[in-house]
Write a structure and sequence with these properties.
The chain is mostly helical. The chain is built from two helices and no strands. It folds into two domains: 60 residues; 37 residues.
């Protein structure tokens, strides 16, 4: 009976040590994950702030927006002209084929 009690106490002690070690390890991992989460939140906030700042600068600077719109209009006109030339050329090719 003493052997059974001794074995039970030894097993209980070993189990308690394993549980304590696991608890300590999980606590360390939890703290590390919390730090990573906090760092990610900080990085995300900084990124959002940077994007927001750049967006505000673009909105505040109408010359940049105007320049971009002008370039877009010129490019659109150029593409339309090329499309018309292509259409005309295709018509001429079809006429020559017939």
């Amino acid at each position: 009976m003493a052997d059974i009690n001794f074995a039970e106490e030894k097993n209980t002690t070993n189990e308690n040590k394993v549980i304590e070690n696991l608890t300590a390890t999980l606590h360390i991992e939890k703290e590390a994950l919390q730090k990573v989460c906090s760092d990610l939140q900080t990085d995300h906030s900084s990124f959002e702030s940077s994007i927001s700042s750049q967006f505000v600068k673009l909105q505040e600077d109408p010359t940049v927006e105007s320049r971009i719109m002008d370039e877009l209009a010129l490019e659109t006109t150029r593409v339309r002209m090329l499309s018309m030339k292509l259409t005309t050329t295709n018509i001429e090719i079809n006429i020559l084929k017939s």
